[in-house]
Specification:
The chain is of the alpha/beta class. The protein is built from 8 helices and 15 strands. The strands form 4 sheets. Strands 1, 2, 3, 4, 5 and 8 form a 6-stranded mixed sheet that branches. The structure holds beta-D-glucopyranose (BGC).
Length: 257
């Protein structure tokens, strides 16, 4: 747990605060936007159950307070978010639908807060600092976690809220077959799960013809176990920022409401 320096924002500072709300954990840290790195060790708190807006906002407030942060906050969220309003929250609680999260969090924290989709946040970080840096063309980031998130970029520009992880595969939501959670909860071997992931990525190749696929999220930490089992024609690489990408991407959006 982090206790060291307690960074405060300064005007025109390159420091921002990023929060990554996930289906199993909520993580946060201050970020240096010049390098795209965490300034302090991140803190993770289990996602409350049920993950209602009130319960999750309490955790976000606790995280911001634990860092003594006072300045713009960016927040990555596992669902569709349009102009700060949550439209879907498959792996959290239905009460989130229709919530103006920017307004709710800005009021609770008394600081400027902006929310965006978590895969989009991770993608923004990978495009600016990580595995997709300086890559033109079509780049697709796929996050492997509780859900199966996607972020689509064309020449570095984000097409937000793509939600391609919910395409149908074998009559099911692809997320329930090819996410990291599906591998763990289904006790699938790397080979079995890689086949499902490969099938999903095959659909992605057919739909959006990416020049590069970046695999991120917690599941990508063990990329060496399954990358050699994939048979894609485009480049497929693990994310460089891995589990920090959501926090960094959220911080990049802080102050952008
Ligand atoms: C959500 C996406 C999210 C992904 C990863 C999916 O269930 O619909 O919005 O990006 O999970 O958290």
């Amino acid at each position: 747990m982090a206790t060291a320096t307690r960074p405060r924002s300064r005007s025109r500072s390159t420091r921002r605060f990023g929060v990554d709300i996930g289906g199993s954990g909520i993580k946060a840290a201050p970020v240096d936007l010049r390098s795209g790195t965490l300034i302090d060790e991140r803190i993770r708190i289990e996602t409350p159950s049920p993950a209602t807006p009130d319960a999750v906002v309490d955790v976000v407030v606790e995280l911001v307070e634990r860092f003594g942060w006072n300045g713009p906050v960016g927040c990555a969220f596992p669902g569709v978010v349009k102009e700060g309003t949550v439209l879907t929250a498959v792996n959290l609680h239905d009460e989130w639908r229709g919530v103006d999260a920017d307004a709710l969090l800005t009021e609770r924290l008394g600081m400027d807060v902006h929310m965006l989709n978590d895969a989009d946040a991770a993608g923004l970080a990978e495009v600016r600092y990580g595995a997709a840096k300086d890559r033109d063309g079509v780049v697709l980031l796929v996050t492997l976690g509780t859900g199966l998130g996607t972020a689509l970029f064309v020449d570095g520009h984000l097409v937000p809220n793509t939600e391609l992880g919910h395409i149908e595969m074998h009559g099911q939501d692809a997320e329930t077959l090819a996410s990291e959670r599906a591998r763990i909860e289904g006790d699938l071997s790397w080979k079995k799960w890689a086949k499902l992931l490969d099938e999903f990525l095959g659909h992605m190749e057919a739909f959006v013809n990416p020049d590069l696929i970046v695999l991120g999220g917690g599941g990508a930490k063990k990329a060496d176990r399954f990358l050699p089992l994939l048979h894609r024609t485009c480049d497929v690489v693990p994310a460089a920022l891995l589990n920090d990408a959501g926090i960094v991407g959220a911080a990049m959006e802080a102050g952008q409401a």
